[in-house]
Design goal:
alpha/beta, Rossmann fold, 2 domains, 13 strands, about 15% strand, elongated
Length: about 425
């Protein structure tokens, strides 16, 4: 039996985008344009009558915007995929509404033939997989953007981001072999090291294209991705020229997150320096903030101030997960409960010190969760992956960690101001 014909509805008030897409599909029997709508009412009516597989909505649709039509289509619970064609550039409000409406793909004008056809096919395949229970691609609600940050340098942020990405990718490979579900985006232009941790030398990075653009589309992002044997896909923003270290703009980071979220189930972002526009936008749009904290008193104090800043900036406490990293052997002198008292927050995971493995892992570009999967540090990372929703498999040693790691801030009571380490005997 041959491949099914993909039925397409296009909504475009001006008609230029519609004509262009029709010209792309001319002569290809795999695609059939079943309707052309010139306004929002026509789009809704044709969607209900024609029941297309893919609906392409131009954001300039009149009398309302394309994204509002996508929101209305989502309420109709149609068994269709929606695409949004953006005439100019991505903005933050549009990104939020796209995620809420379940827009599966993003097209940015000027339209390119290969990009448009790939987007139509990808959108169709996603919905087809969901209908038939094949689960090759997760639904929109299960997609996660996880920001990995820290209050200061040297906390182990990149180490956690890289190894966690590999752990989630390996878990995803067991449930869906051959699929790419995890991307690690290193958005630190000035000192991004994720590529080094993975022994990858990117040919081009996000900083190479950001100077000449205000936003990016999927085709541009695809040209920058690098694959790692673990199943992790890397997007690096590190500058290749030391004297041209221009920070990423707000528009670049917003459009990048939109593209990555539409493409991958898990997007882990190594945020880099805190307090920058890049870090602020990333933390704003992510679903989970992993706050990596070195387990010594100076770093704990700095982390407490940073955590207070996040809460004062209206980030929900339940969105923030603290990862305690034993950077030095002496870190064990501060117990987890003592660290929680200093931070006034629950520790979701603690990565023990592994003096034998971690330095070699970094210098050789070989994540320790791959080379030493059973060491305590790897087990802690796998436990964190499980907490974030990765299926770590039956019989795993970390399966029992789920309840212990579960975030339950309401059950905790901390002092309002604590700076001294509590009595050493605390459990």
């Amino acid at each position: 039996m041959g491949n099914p014909i993909i039925k397409i509805l296009i909504a475009d008030s001006e008609g230029a985008a519609c004509d262009k897409i029709c010209s792309f599909l001319t002569g290809d029997p795999a695609y059939q344009v079943v309707g052309r709508a010139v306004n929002a009412d026509e789009c809704m009516g044709l969607a209900l009558i024609k029941r297309p597989d893919v609906i392409i909505v131009h954001n300039g649709l009149k009398p309302t915007s394309g994204i509002e039509v996508c929101e209305q289509l989502a309420l109709q619970n149609l068994d269709s995929a929606t695409l949004l064609v953006v005439a100019q550039a991505m903005d933050e409000n549009l990104f939020r509404r796209m995620m809420a409406a379940g827009v599966s793909e993003l097209l940015v004008a000027p339209l390119q033939k290969n990009r448009a056809i790939d987007a139509i096919r990808n959108a169709f395949d996603k919905k087809a997989g969901q209908r038939h229970g094949d689960t090759p691609v997760p639904n929109e609600d299960s997609r996660r953007i996880i920001a990995v940050t820290g209050p200061r340098g040297g906390c182990g942020r990149t180490m956690v981001a890289v190894n966690l990405s590999c752990a989630i990718a390996k878990a995803a490979e067991r449930t869906s072999p051959g699929s790419k579900h995890v991307v690690l985006a290193d958005v630190n232009v000035r000192a991004g090291d994720a590529a080094t941790f993975l022994d990858i030398r990117p040919q081009r990075t996000l900083s190479d294209v950001s100077a000449a653009a205000t936003s990016v589309d999927r085709e541009m992002i695809e040209s920058l991705l690098e694959n790692h044997p673990s199943g992790v896909t890397l997007l690096s923003a590190a500058a290749t020229e030391p004297y041209e270290r221009q920070e990423l703009s707000r528009g670049i980071i917003v459009s990048t997150l939109a593209v990555l979220r539409s493409r991958f189930r898990y997007t882990l972002v190594d945020v880099g320096v805190t307090g920058t526009e890049v870090s602020n936008v990333t933390l704003d749009f992510c679903d989970t903030i992993l706050l990596v904290v070195g387990a010594d008193l100076p770093r704990l104090r700095a982390a407490r101030l940073y955590l207070c800043h996040l809460l004062e900036s209206n980030f929900p406490r339940e969105k923030i997960q603290v990862v305690l990293n034993d950077i030095q052997p002496e870190s064990k002198t501060i117990s987890t409960s003592q660290a929680e008292t200093i931070l006034e927050a629950v520790v979701a995971a603690r990565v023990p010190h592994e003096g034998r493995f971690v330095p070699d892992s970094i210098n050789l570009g070989q994540p320790f969760v791959l080379t030493h999967p059973n060491c305590p540090a790897s087990q802690a990372i796998h436990g964190l992956a499980a907490k974030l929703g990765a299926d770590i498999g039956k019989g795993s040693a970390v399966k029992g960690l789920w309840k212990r790691l579960h975030w339950n801030a309401a059950s905790q009571a901390f002092a309002s101001t604590v700076y001294a380490v509590p009595t050493r005997g605390a459990s």
